[in-house]
Amino acid sequence: MKLLRNDLCWCGSGKKYKKCHMESDALSGTPKKIIAPKGIKIKNSEEIAGIAKCCKLTGNILDMLDEKITEGITTNDINELVHDYTIRHGAIPATLGYNGFPKSVCTSLNNVICHGIPDSTVLKNGDIINVDVTSILNGYYGDANRMYMIGEVSAEAKKLVRVTRECLYMAIEQVKPYNDFGKIGEVIQKHADKNGFSVVRDYGGHGIGLNFHEEPHVHHYNVGYRGLHMFPGMIFTIEPMINAGKYQTKLLKDGWTAVTIDGLLSAQWEHTICVTEKGADILTLTSKEK
Hints:
There is one protein chain. This protein is of the alpha+beta class. Helix content is 25%, strand content 22%. It has helices at residues 22-28, 45-65, 75-88, 155-172, 182-194; strands spanning 92-93, 106-109, 112-114, 128-137, 140-149, 198-199, 205-207, 214-218, 235-238, 241-243, 249-251, 258-260, 266-268, 271-275, 280-282. The strands form five sheets. Strands 1, 2, 4 and 5 form a four-stranded antiparallel β-sheet that branches. Strands 3-12-11 form a three-stranded antiparallel β-sheet, with no helix packed on it. A hairpin with a 6-residue loop joins strand 11 and strand 12 (258-260). The two termini are 35 Å apart. The model has no long low-confidence stretch (mean pLDDT 94).
């Protein structure tokens, strides 16, 4: 697709093409063309509406848990709450049975980075926990996760949870037509580094909507310019995992649970994002979280 004068410039500066690279591209004799990458599904209006409806349900599930997640409940209690709410609202928990995953939600406690399996573990004062929900509604997928702090948590834990959420929203600000996907990881790593934390590299965001995991992979650390541009109608997750210590991960024997190698805390926040003509629509954002 050839860029028009008032389109955002292909370089990701946020400026209009006419005020950025249009003149230099013309002088070079080869005006810049941004072509939608192969293998990444551009959703149509009907698909976007269906995905948005599923994402709203996913966000509502996380809202429901706000008053339920307290000291004394188990991570399996959280699983049952998510499962029952999902089924009552005509949806399916996407994680249940996915590649053998045994539960309807992921619960990642303290030093667990992601994909924690709910069990009989009891939440206690000072814990932090990530709950990751993916729903299927009428064949469409919506994915989001959120951090919950139990009772009085340490100052370091509060900072980690806050900075991780800031990383997510700084990354969402980079979602706009024709911007390069590399900008997402660039801003996340810069903010994490500034606050003395590290960014997990073994896991990332992903395309979603018609399937649980689609292209593209979304890096949360700085990989530089990818040459992969965002187009209106692309839908994907941004879900930075930020560690208090080292960024490396260790996979437990269950084949799912990823933990920090040094035993220090980890936090994660996630939204499903749709690229629009003007920027980004956060499909899993609820009025309660705003």
